[in-house]
């Protein structure tokens, strides 16, 4: 059995038995393709030939290659895929030792999420004002994403029935985990206007779909569509900074914490499995407080 065949067996396992999303399986496939091609280039024809030093050499190669060396974050992700693959091989009896078990990822740099200010968010949302079909849709989309902190995949995956009683939305996150998040008044107004004045027209242009957000031809919006919508709105608003779907999610969390929200409430709203993931946003708030203090206190400088 070839290394590539073992990789295919692993991908079937995570897709069928573990029920991972198509996006996650696709990411595993990309990572494993890089790994198996490298192994073949090193003359490794069977997974039983892989040793811990082999996996370590692979990570060193990714981090030091002349073209596009990977960052610590990307290396950690690649190692996670490789470790899952080798754990599967051990469980299936394909190998006697898990060659990747004791390999540790490189230390992650301490990076803070990028958020934009409340005024910048307001300008971004104002840039979607208008009565055209795409304006009504874009306004509803961006208001909902900022109101809920939804990931882009969660936003495009919404169906009409996921908007519950107009003021609550059901988001389906990683691992098909669902959570209920409230909608603020601005998002409620924008979504209601879109549902009444724009979505029926867009829906008539395509095949019947339960999707909440539709493209101009009546099909469900893609993640790429959302990127383009946000980029165009940011350009019209002349923000002067790069804005992505994740920027709205970061801003949602940062602004809630700055307004006094409890970190565990924000954790629940974001759908984080661990509060440690959410706590990075408290560093952003602390930095903002420090900046104000240094600027305002007469004996701070």
Molecular structure report:
With 301 residues, this protein is mainly alpha-helical. It has 13 helices and three strands, in the order H-H-H-H-H-H-H-E-E-E-H-H-H-H-H-H. It has helices at 3-17, 22-41, 52-64, 72-91, 118-126, 133-148, 152-156, 185-197, 199-204, 223-237, 245-258, 263-270, 275-296, and strands spanning 163-164, 168-172, 178-182. Helix 5 packs across helix 10, helix 6 (133-148) packs across helix 11 (245-258) and helix 11 (245-258) packs across helix 13 (275-296). The protein is globular, with a radius of gyration of 23 Å. The N and C termini lie far apart (67 Å). The mean pLDDT is 89.
Write a concise keyword list for the protein shown above.
301 residues; globular; 58% helix; 13 helices
What's a concise summary of this model?
The chain has 301 residues and is mainly alpha-helical. The chain has helices at residues 3-17, 22-41, 52-64, 72-91, 118-126, 133-148, 152-156, 185-197, 199-204, 223-237, 245-258, 263-270, 275-296, and strands spanning 163-164, 168-172, 178-182. A three-stranded antiparallel sheet has the order 1-2-3, with no helix packed on it.
Counted by DSSP, the helix tally is 13
Strand content is under 5%
Low-confidence stretches: none
Order of helices and strands: HHHHHHHEEEHHHHHH
Secondary-structure blueprint of this entry?
Blueprint: H1 3-17, H2 22-41, H3 52-64, H4 72-91, H5 118-126, H6 133-148, H7 152-156, E1 163-164, E2 168-172, E3 178-182, H8 185-197, H9 199-204, H10 223-237, H11 245-258, H12 263-270, H13 275-296
Antiparallel strand pairs: 1-2, 2-3
Helix pairs in contact: 1-2, 2-4, 3-4, 5-10, 6-8, 6-11, 11-13, 12-13
